[in-house]
Write a structure and sequence with these properties.
The chain is of the alpha+beta class and 623 residues long. The chain has 14 helices and 24 strands. It folds into 4 domains: 161 residues, GAF domain (Beta-Lactamase); 155 residues, GAF domain (Beta-Lactamase); 120 residues, no CATH class; 103 residues, Efflux pump adaptor protein, beta barrel domain (Elongation Factor Tu (Ef-tu), domain 3). The protein is 44% helix and 30% strand. Helix 12 packs antiparallel against helix 13.
């Protein structure tokens, strides 16, 4: 301990004042108290060695890079302005200096020693001495040199504290940036930002506003999921933000001592009306100007130091989160954000020097579009196609009955008159016996009436006999038609009764459909957008699903005027004939048909579907 005191310059004998000064020096937390105790010990130590000290001062670097007195000896009111020159020169040269002179017939000297930390001058100690000799002056310089180590240590501690505070602030800002960046949309990101700031700043409320058309619109309030924009409080908050936006910097009410002059009328009004401790606003910077404003409000009992630290953190968060906020704002505003920016960036790259690949590609694209607009090709209407028989006959149930047998089913080739199915004849046979019996009974009664010359009974029995014969003829006709035969030779395209044996069928029910194998037609299901371009006589090609290697020529024969719904699409049926047939065609085959309607430009062929849809959409929505 005595070695340390000797380094500062105190003598071996100490009075109560020295003890108090040493106690202040050992326990001083603030810089001014530390410098005052150090300077007092330094000057008293020199005087104890017979070196008179007329005045001394410690100048320390301020936040605005100027130097102001941190301590003056022997009192704060002592005039040390004459020491400014040597102090300024010592700071400029970065070394200890001594200016000699004479006063009252003796030696006068002003000595200064700078406090340098990491190449930056933090302060300077300067003393006005009246040494009796050069040896005393050299001793004073050595004592000042040794004692300045304490000031350098204090500067180093301050630097470490500032670095630690900045590191802590940087970590907090990085956490804020992560909380904002992990949100996809603008509103969740804004809510995450204000909520995180409110908890880290110790503020009662944090608000975020978005710049729209040079005005501020309140976007989020911390810990509030919804707010009414029509309230006076929202208007007041937006007014506070616009005050910061107009001046483009940090605004704080009450203003800090080192804050430059700014107009804070709206901030002061908000602070007083809501009884707040402080209101601080900072602009969120973007690439082309401000994109938003953050406003923090602290309660009336908030610590001023915490408010100052929070204001610094708020400013740092705005600087780092501004670009991220701008990107999310651009994504949220497609028509006024991302699209104009993308177009502007593209135009700049085309007009500025460089970007040869882009310019060559753009020129090639323009040339390609021009060629496509001039070149022509055959335009063909594409439609789904189905092969059908030119003549299609149906075999129906002649009467209500049951299926007895069905040797033929769909897909089989049949000859004309070939048995397709047989209906159960048992009920018809019984009915045939019944009517035969009734006919014979009526005939017997008729003969008896003739024998008895009963004319009336004979007429009645003759009528019943004819009735029974008619019913018997009907039963015989049904028996003859119980065997279902193919009306024409061809392919059975529908009907399979092999799984319906002994099942009932109704009169007129279609059991089989048969199409010839030597005559076909093509049914084209044309979208209603293309039907106006088709006419009878136009030609085209058909590609079947199972025969893709051999397109078949066709010619349109009929364009129907009736539409129908197929798979949710309005289509028209267009019939065409094949101008060339192949032996392996079968009814029911499907494919794609294309009908040539004329020549059009290649660009029109590729884009007309979209342009037609766009015209219809505009016609629908425009007044």
């Amino acid at each position: 301990m005595y070695a340390d005191r000797a380094a500062i310059g105190s003598g071996p004998q100490e009075d109560d004042a020295d003890v108090a000064t040493w106690s202040q020096f050992a326990t001083a937390g603030e810089l001014n108290a530390f410098c005052a105790a150090w300077l007092a010990l330094q000057c008293r130590g020199m005087e104890s060695r017979g070196i008179p000290v007329r005045g001394a001062a410690v100048l320390w670097r301020q936040p605005d890079t100027s130097f102001a007195p941190a301590a003056v000896w022997p009192s704060a009111r002592h005039d040390v302005s004459h020491l400014a020159g040597v102090a300024r020169q010592s700071l400029a040269e970065g070394r200890g200096l001594c200016e000699r002179g004479s006063a009252d017939g003796g030696l006068q000297a002003c000595i200064a020693y700078p406090v340098v930390q990491s190449g930056t001058a933090c302060g300077v100690a300067v003393l006005d001495l009246r040494p009796s000799s050069e040896s005393q002056l050299q001793q004073a310089m050595r004592l000042l040199h040794w004692g300045a180590g304490w000031l350098e240590n204090k500067a180093r501690q301050q630097g470490a504290q500032v670095a630690e505070a900045r590191l802590h602030q940087a970590l907090q800002v990085i956490d804020l940036l992560g909380a904002v960046g992990e949100q996809d949309a603008l509103q969740p990101a804004t809510m995450a930002l204000v909520n995180e700031l409110a908890s880290r700043l110790g503020a009662s409320r944090v608000l975020a506003g978005v710049v729209r058309h040079q005005r501020i619109r309140l976007a989020a309030v911390s810990h509030v999921s919804w707010f009414d924009r029509r309230t006076a409080e929202v208007d007041a908050s937006e007014n506070v933000m616009e005050e910061a936006l107009d001046q483009g910097g940090l605004l704080r009410a009450p203003a800090a001592a080192d804050q430059p002059f700014r107009i804070t009328v709206a901030h002061e009004e908000r602070r007083k009306s809501a009884t707040l401790g402080a209101v601080c606003s900072v602009v969120l910077p973007g690439r082309d100007g401000p994109v938003g404003v953050l406003t923090a409000e602290w309660p009336a009992d908030a610590d001023p130091t915490a408010i100052a630290t929070g204001a610094e953190l708020l400013e740092a968060a705005a600087l780092l989160c501004g670009p991220v906020f701008e990107d999310k704002l651009d994504r949220a505003r497609w028509l006024t954000g991302r699209a104009p920016n993308a177009v502007s960036s593209f135009v700049q790259r085309l007009t500025q020097r460089g970007h040869a690949t882009l310019k060559i590609g753009m020129a090639a694209a323009v040339a390609a579009v021009a060629v496509l607009a001039v070149a022509e090709q055959d335009y063909r209407v594409t439609a789904k196609a189905v092969i059908e028989g030119e003549v299609q006959r149906a075999a129906v149930a002649p009467f209500r009955g049951y299926v007895a047998s069905a040797p033929i089913r769909a897909g089989a080739q049949v000859a004309k008159g070939q048995v397709l199915a047989v209906l159960d004849e048992r009920d018809l046979r019984l009915e045939q016996v019944r009517w035969t019996s009734e006919r014979e009974q009526a005939a017997q009664k008729y003969h008896d009436a003739l024998a008895k010359r009963d004319r009336a009974t004979a007429v009645l029995q003759a009528a019943q006999q004819r009735q029974a014969q008619a019913q018997l003829d009907l039963v015989d006709e049904k028996l003859a038609r119980a065997t279902i035969r193919a009306p024409i030779a061809g392919l059975v395209v529908s009907g399979d009764l092999s799984q319906l044996l002994d099942s009932p069928v109704d009169v007129g029910q279609t059991l089989f459909e048969i199409a010839p194998l030597d005559a076909y037609r093509v049914a084209l299901l044309v979208d209603d957008r293309d039907i106006a371009q088709l006419q009878v006589g136009q030609t085209g090609q058909l590609v079947l699903t199972g025969l893709t290697k051999e397109p078949l020529p066709l010619r349109v024969t009929t364009v129907t005027a009736m539409a129908e719904q197929r798979e949710g699409v309005n289509v028209f049926r267009v019939e065409a004939e094949l101008t060339r047939s192949v032996p392996y065609l079968r009814p029911g085959m499907e494919g794609v048909g294309k009908v040539t309607v004329g020549e059009r430009s290649v660009l029109w062929v590729w884009t007309h579907s979209f342009t037609d849809w766009l015209r219809l959409a505009l016609w629908r929505w425009l007044p």
